[in-house]
Fold this protein.
Amino acid sequence: MSSQASPKGVVTVKNLRKYKATGKKFTSLTAYDAAFAAVLDEAGIDVVLVGDSLGMVVQGLDTTIPVSMDDIIYHSQTVARGLQRAMLMVDMPFMSYATEEQALHNASRLMKEGGAQIVKLEWGALQLGMVRRFTECGIPVCAHLGLTPQTYFKMGGYKVQGRDDLTASRMLDDALALEEAGADVLLLECVPRELAKKITESVSTPVIGIGAGPDVDGQVLVLYDILDIAPGKRTRFSKNYMRNNGAIQDAIKQYDQEVRDGTFPSDEHSFE
Ligand code: KIV
């Protein structure tokens, strides 16, 4: 087996735009190895994310902050080998994009060594220029807004973001600026349902939500949460798909189906 990942995905950012334009929901889950990646791909999941959540669910850390470029590249290579159809999105770890030069260097490593077809970075004002540069260089990019786990210590915990008028209108402005800068996908984490809806309706960029209610274009969850094997407290916005399924494959298929038909997420998984 080659150590060089070879991207084979047939889902691209263009497909996601088409889904949005035609009102079709798309699905995403995290994966950290080839076996699970193949199960997700086979179930029809559109976007497989090698998230830095691997620090918590695979490495047993308390936050995503210690995850390194080498960790992400290793897991990305293994996931890439399991995929045939799904688009491979890969997280840029904490402090791997502190400057534009460093961001370009590391995004290019994720694509060349890790097989990433789109990279994801957590949003901050500094990242607008980066998204523009990525776009100029032909690097597909997803900007992660709302709850950004890499700023855990600045945020003072994992909390719903955008609940007051000021932060809500800033998030909408950020989304519009990111669209203008060329972001290919926006990801909203732990955002009130109405705000997520407003952002989704205001941009033509596809919006993926996690804890952002049902009115976004696609949904993403942490795989180990839906399989009910994540260590620690259960997140309110996730759902245990093993409850009514005897096989992991069936659980993934049920998640995929429920996102597409709008059954998931329901009110109990959304924030007001
Ligand atoms: O790291 C991750 O798994 C993520 C998801 C929570 C969206 O960024």
Summary: Strands lie at 26-30, 47-50, 87-91, 118-122, 141-146, 185-189, 207-210, 218-221.
